[in-house]
Design a protein that fits this description.
There is one protein chain. The chain has 503 residues and is of the alpha+beta class. 41% of the residues lie in helices and 22% in strands. The chain has 19 helices and 23 strands. A hairpin with a 4-residue loop joins strand 10 and strand 11. It starts with a strand and ends with a helix. 54% of the residues are buried.
Length: 503
């Protein structure tokens, strides 16, 4: 037998089958395009995403025929949703987190309810990223979508629906809609009214780790499953990744380095100070706890942008040698700290400043500057943002004294050392880079009796590959650079506002 974790990301999906010890038996992934039909619009085609998930399911199931999957669970990006009609048709593409077409609707919702009230209900600071303000944009520009929608489904409940079970949403994912009251663990009538949607247009919320159904036999056969397969509620990809990294108790945080970057720390409750720092606080995928989430929507997309726009030479080397292009890009930077400072705000500032008008900036260019200096500035800039987050979390009473890193970026030892030097904290990389898939597979295993608890599952399945420690001789330089980094946004803020006024 094996357990399966399905992770539906912003730019790709992964399906992984694990044995009971956490070893990967088979995995498959697909990258899909992030569509941008207009400036500031970023969306996915849900049917295309589902098609790629089906390909991955068949590929993995074909490799585990002697260890068939008995239970699976799901993690996905937050906020993006598919409006689905009663006969199962997808009515529109899914605006993802970084889509900013709904700035006006977000401001209207904030004015109507107030940021204090919204945070008190949801644990979320107001932003354009959430599902409800995106639905409000449809109200204003495509009201027929609201009229025809049977369910607005985030990707965990959308995939569950496609797998033939009831579209149930877990608490951690429900929180990302901005319609979920974390105190009552149910949809908020007040927020639903503000979003002009009905309760029955959203999936039923349940805790992570609950069995919600079994894949119908005919569909299971089509997807290559052998025997009965239980579907279990999973989690938003960030708390699911924290679970898969073994981040279950306060003190240790998870740093996810993928398409976006996210810092997840375990806490017992939302705190008022979190609102000041634009930190989200909501249910962990490990029931009984909350997480504090601070993130940057630019993240690994910035390296992808560099790859596509500036790295022709590195791409040529990778093609000639068969090496990973990101490895070629990062290896050129050397070990000395950089002098350039980059603000990684290519789709707004993300958390902390919560400024959708902010854009990327690179300070320190001169005629001696090389491409390697820009790469270093990218790696350091993304890390300065997280170091600043850690400082503010500590001030808010959420202790962070160790980090576990997951995601594709965690495979770069050079970057992990930079992150340890800048944050001043030990950073451990776990053996599997697919922590979100592992985390929801743990939930599937606990729900079906393979493990007695998540703590038992974590002790059996999660091991550390390598730990990086901060080098004292770098501390002075990086603390100075971090101070400059923090001042840079404040200096540029009037410029961002002036540029927006011209538009």
């Amino acid at each position: 037998m094996s357990l399966m974790g399905i992770d539906v990301g912003t730019t790709g999906c992964k399906v992984v089958a694990f044995d009971e010890s956490g070893a990967v038996l088979a995995q498959a992934g697909r990258e899909y395009p992030l569509l941008s039909p207009n400036p500031g619009w970023y969306e996915l085609d849900p049917e295309q995403v589902w098609s790629f998930i089906c390909e991955c399911l068949r590929e993995v199931n074909n490799q585990v025929r002697h260890d068939p999957v008995t239970a699976l669970s799901l993690s996905s990006q937050g906020e993006a949703m598919a409006p689905v009609s009663e006969d199962g048709r997808v009515l529109a593409n899914s605006p993802v987190s970084s889509d900013r077409r709904n700035t006006k609707q977000t401001a209207e919702m904030e004015a109507a309810l107030g940021v204090e009230r919204i945070f008190a209900l949801t644990g979320q600071p107001m932003s354009t990223i959430y599902t409800l303000p995106k639905i409000l944009w449809w109200r204003d520009h495509a009201p027929e979508i609201l009229d025809k929608t049977w369910k607005f489904l985030c990707y965990v409940d959308f995939v569950a629906f496609k797998l033939g079970v009831e579209p149930v949403i877990d608490f951690s994912m429900a929180a990302r809609t901005l319609a979920f009251d974390y105190r009552t663990e149910d949809w908020s009538d007040e927020l639903l009214a503000a979003g002009h949607i009905r309760r029955d247009q959203l999936a039923r919320p349940l805790p992570s780790g609950e069995i919600i159904g079994e894949i119908p036999r005919r569909l299971a056969d089509e997807l290559g499953f052998i025997g009965s397969v239980k579907v279990v509620t999973g989690g938003h990809d960030q708390p699911a990744g924290a679970l898969g990294a073994g981040v279950l108790q306060p003190g240790t945080a998870m740093l996810a380095i993928g398409t976006t970057e996210a810092l997840v720390a375990v806490t017992d409750r939302p705190r008022r100070q979190m609102l000041e720092y634009n930190v989200s606080c909501y249910h962990h995928a490990a029931p009984g706890n909350f997480i504090a989430l601070s993130g940057n929507q630019t993240g690994g997309r910035l390296l992808r942008w560099y790859r596509d726009e500036l790295a022709a030479a590195e791409r040529a080397v990778a093609d000639e040698t068969g090496r990973d292009v990101y490895e070629v890009i990062i290896e050129q930077i050397g070990d000395a700290p950089g002098d350039m400072i980059l603000l990684p705000y290519f789709v707004g500032s993300g958390a902390l400043h919560n400024d959708p008008l902010a854009s990327g900036a690179l300070i320190g260019l001169n005629f001696d500057s090389k491409r390697a200096d820009i790469v270093r500035a990218i790696l350091e800039g993304l890390t300065y943002e997280q170091a600043f987050c850690i400082r503010l979390l500590n001030e808010a009473g959420v202790a962070v004294n160790r980090i576990r890193a997951i995601g594709g970026g965690s495979r770069s030892e050079r970057w992990m050392q930079i992150k340890s030097d800048i944050t001043g904290l030990p950073i451990s990389v776990i053996h599997t880079s697919e922590a979100a898939s592992l985390g929801v597979a743990m939930l599937a295993g606990c729900a079906t009796g393979v493990y007695s608890s998540l703590e038992e599952a974590a002790s059996q399945l999660i091991t550390v590959r390598k730990t990086f420690y901060p080098r004292p001789d770098r501390a002075g330089h990086y603390q100075l650079q971090l101070k400059i980094y923090a001042d840079l946004y404040q200096a540029l803020r009037p410029i961002y506002q002036a540029l927006a006024a011209e538009d």
